Amino acid sequence: MHGKGAYCYSNGDRYDGEWKDDKRHGKGVVVYAAADGSVSEKYDGEWMDGRMQGWGKYFYADGGVYEGEWNDGRMHGRGTYVFPNGNRYEGEWVEDRKHGYGILVYVNGERYEGYWQFDRAHGKGTLMYLQGDRYVGEWSNGKKHGRGVLTYSNGDIYDGEWRDDNASGYGVLEYANGCRYEGEWEEDHRHGQGVLHLPDGSSYEGGFFHGKKEGNGRIILKDGSIYIGTWKDGNIVGQGEFRLSESCDLSNPDY
């Protein structure tokens, strides 16, 4: 077959379009038949040597629809895929997988814009969460990993290191209430050595364990006075040392 023509296959499939040397070549439409004879899937686009090549639109049996570039029968290049659940991806593809730069808009309103590797967010990207949180930073294998900034809907801002989707490593959290923590994190908790600054001008320097003060530390008051002691589960335990600043007036009843 050569030129334009239609061909019906014994299994019910039908191709209508251009041919070259008995192969689909050029522009054409193929309709794949289901077992009951109804239309299962459909491709409308360009062909080369019997395979989808160039630009085309494919309607899948599960309801998904892809429109974009093809190479050797696979989604490859730039294209848009609307998933059966309503999610929509627009961007680069490599061998049927999201790969390169692209935007995925979820049906619930969330949105990821950035780089992909083998169908997973990988590299630099931005994720807008449904509740209003916003993460801008590095990703690895679909998870926040590396350096990034997460701005929470309540006004808190974390800027630091991430590992496997959790704040881990060194980071700074600016609380909406005026507090500020600088130090080590593990699995989204203040964990290790850090400094917690309070709105009243005082601060705590020392150890943390799963978000609470733990181990040796000291409190520095706004006037420069210092308490040195030990904490357990967020509370002071045992005896400590309190050093008044030179500016303290001991005749003042506030001291």
TrEMBL record:
PANTHER family: RADIAL SPOKE HEAD 1 HOMOLOG
Matches recorded under InterPro entries: MORN
SMART domains registered for this protein in UniProt: MORN
Pfam families noted in UniProt: MORN
Superkingdom to which the source organism belongs: Eukaryota
Keyword Membrane: no
Protein name (record): MORN repeat-containing protein 1
Entry keyword set: Repeat
